[in-house]
Amino acid sequence: MITRFLGDTAVLTGRTMRHVTRSLDTIITTAITPVAMMLLFVYVFGGAIDTGPVSYVNYMLPGILLITIASGISYTAFRIFMDMRSGIFERFQSMPIARSGVLWAHVLTSLVANVISLVVVVGVALLMGFRSGAGVAAWLAVAGLLILFTLALTWIAVIPGLTAKTLDGASAFAYPLIFLPFISSAFVPTDTMPGPVRAFADHQPVTSIVNTIRDLLTQQPPGTGIWTAVAWCAGILVVAYVFAGITYRRRI
């Protein structure tokens, strides 16, 4: 059963990956917006924001990476919506393939596409002066956290992809996720915010994830914050996965 699932998922992932490679502009578009934000904040607003001994490009890169992921997963909802509208899901149901493999193919394609976009953004950040003395273990921890965050948001994207009535509706859900880092510690320290805003910023998932990535890249001990970040990502992933599975069974 597991061998069949893995084989079917691999074949279906190859199908969705071919769609991406034939339309590389989606990955480029996903990377352009975060890169433009990074240029704007570093070269326009960066001089007015006090981040202490940490350069501003180092300070705000973790938030930009999360925005990159939030931008990228909107294309997952888009691809699922297009498959739903074309009837390909129903066609797959008539074939002897693992039912969950269809969704996992879209999720894994999203993961690969987002990793490419993240690499592009980090490359631009290096050109802008980003530097990190973090070791291999710290970079692996950052990569693991970003992958977990990508999987969590991608499974959220599956739900509107299956249920949306229009193409705009399928991708519009990503806008709140893109703007969530702006009300966090991603771009400015939260202690500069008004009371209620600071309370929200300090207790939403993006802040713990951003702080953890920032600490790892600046060689600071993340403390218990890393477990809070992992718990947020894992919790969102489990809830989104369950609801996506329920939605899929009801729709197909």
TrEMBL record:
Any one Gene Ontology cellular component term annotated for this protein: ATP-binding cassette (ABC) transporter complex
Output the Pfam families linked to this UniProt entry. Answer: ABC2_membrane
Q: Which family does it belong to?
A: Belongs to the ABC-2 integral membrane protein family.
**Chief subcellular location:** membrane
GO term, biological process aspect, one: response to antibiotic
Q: How does it sit in the membrane?
A: Multi-pass membrane protein
The ABC transmembrane type-2 domain covers 25-251
Q: Where in the cell is it found?
A: Cell membrane; Membrane
TM segment ranges: 27-49, 61-82, 103-130, 136-158, 170-188, 226-248
Species = Actinoplanes aureus
What is the recorded name of this protein? Transport permease protein
As one GO molecular function, the record gives:
ABC-type transporter activity
Question: Which key words are in the record?
Answer: Antibiotic resistance, Cell membrane, Membrane, Transmembrane, Transmembrane helix, Transport
* Keyword Transcription regulation part of the UniProt annotation: no
